Amino acid sequence: MIRVMLVDDQAVVRAGFRVILEEAGDIEVVAEASSGTAAVELARRLQPDVICMDVRMPHGDGLTATREIVATATPPAVLVVTTFDLDEYVFGALEAGASGFILKDCEPEDLIEAVRRLADGYGLVDQAVTRRVISEFARRTPAPRSDAAAAHQLTARETEIVELLAQGLSNVEIADRLFIETSTVKSHLGRAMGKIGARDRLQTVVWAYQNGVVRH
To answer: Residue 57: which of 6, 9, 105 has the closest Cα?
Structure first.
């Protein structure tokens, strides 16, 4: 069972998300919070698998909360829920370490799938809107100088796989493109993530854009 916490200052939004997620059968909403401040405290105490985080809230915004939650030893995946796909808060959330984001007016099945993907350790990297935002984020945010050295540590195959990941391909699609096994893709990607210090696939894609592995 995937344990989820909902964070939004609007009770009606939380209620709607709760109904959608719990109807999935494999998802349980274990807590709700109406502010970022409350979310941080609940996250530390309950340790959910995924947090659906609003960004604009009184008494503690989602950006600050995301940064504090992700900084913990075993952080949950944070799914930022926003109204606009190029919301300035989204860039800050990516920088803070969010694992993905989704629009509030998404289809119910998209929300369920997003939660499942994050619970499985995948960022939302195959959505066109996500790639557009990541590209813009990377354009605005210069890569740390230390990342340049990390880029040179990647093998040619690891670089190739990271580039295809950043283009939105799944592990299966990458394997088909390169004529290798899916397990081989996972192994190469895991080693690449270790070298660049990325927590998940989404952060790997952000790194790829920042370091010129893919073009903006």
So the answer is: 9
